[in-house]
Amino acid sequence: MEPPQESAAGGRKRRRRGGARNRRKLSSSSQQAPPSPEAAPPPPSSPPSKRRRKDGTGQATATPKRGNTSSLLDKMRARLSGGHFRMLNEKLYTCSGQDAFDYFKNDPTLFDVYHTGYQEQMSHWPEQPVNVIINWLKSHNTSWTVADFGCGNAAVAKNVKNKVFSIDLVSDDPSVIACDMAHTPLDQSSVDVAIFCLSLMGTNYPSYLEEANRVLKPGGWLVIAEVRSRLDPNNGGADPEKFSKAIIQLGFSLVSKDMKNKMFILFYFRKKEKSKVAKSIDWPQLKACIYKRR
Hints:
This protein is of the alpha/beta class. Helix content is 39%, strand content 18%. Probable methyltransferase required to silence rDNA.
C-alpha cells in the first residue's frame, strides 16, 4: 500500500528546511572560527648557510670559491715570477759579464726565468727595437754576416736570411753560442754587422764593444739599441753625446741616431776603414735599468 502523498511531500519539505538550517549554521561557524593551523601558509625558509671550514686558529671561515682560488693563485705566481725577474735583471746590470756568465752557468734555468719576465716587460712597449733592427737588416745586403750580442731568443737569426752568430750567456739552442760577450770565439774581422739590442748590461760594457770592434770587418756596422732612460742625463742617465764620442774614439763614425721612439734610442755606427783606437777612452757610466716593484 502506497504511503499518502501529503506525508511524503511534507517530509521532503521538512528535510529541505532542516538542510537550509544546517547550511546556515555551517556558514556562520566558518565565518567566525579562526583559520586552522593546517591552513596557515608555511613560514619563509631561511637561505642555505654557506659551507664553512675552520682555519688554524679554530675559527670558522667561509670556504672560498674554486674560481676565486685559482685566480688568487695565478696572481701570486705572477707576483713571485715578477719579483724573481727583477732580482735577476738587477744582477745583470750590476755585475760583470764574466760574473753573469758564471752565475747562469751554475743554474741555466734562471736564464729562462729572466727571459720570461723580459718578454712580459717588452710586451708593454708599443714598438720592439729588435723588429726595427730586423727590418733594417732586411733592407740591406743579405750576404752580410751578423753577430747578435745578447741575442735572447735569437729573433734576429729567425727572421733574416743573413748568416747570424747568435751570442748570449746561456744556450738552450744549438745555434746560440754561450759565452761572456767580452770574449767570443769569433775570428777577427769576420762579421759585417754587430748588434747590441738592449744588451749592454754588464758593468764592463765597454769590453763588449771592444770585442765587437775586434770581430767587425773594416767598414762594418755597429747597431746599438738602448733603453732611453739610461741615456737621459736629466734623469740620472749618461749623456748620449758622450756615449757616442766614446765609441767614435774606439774607431767608428756615427752614421745616424734615431731618438724618435719614447722607449729606446738607436745608434748606427760604422767602423772606419783605417780605424785607430784612442789610448784612453772616457766611457760614461750607463745607468742600471731597474724595474720598480708594482
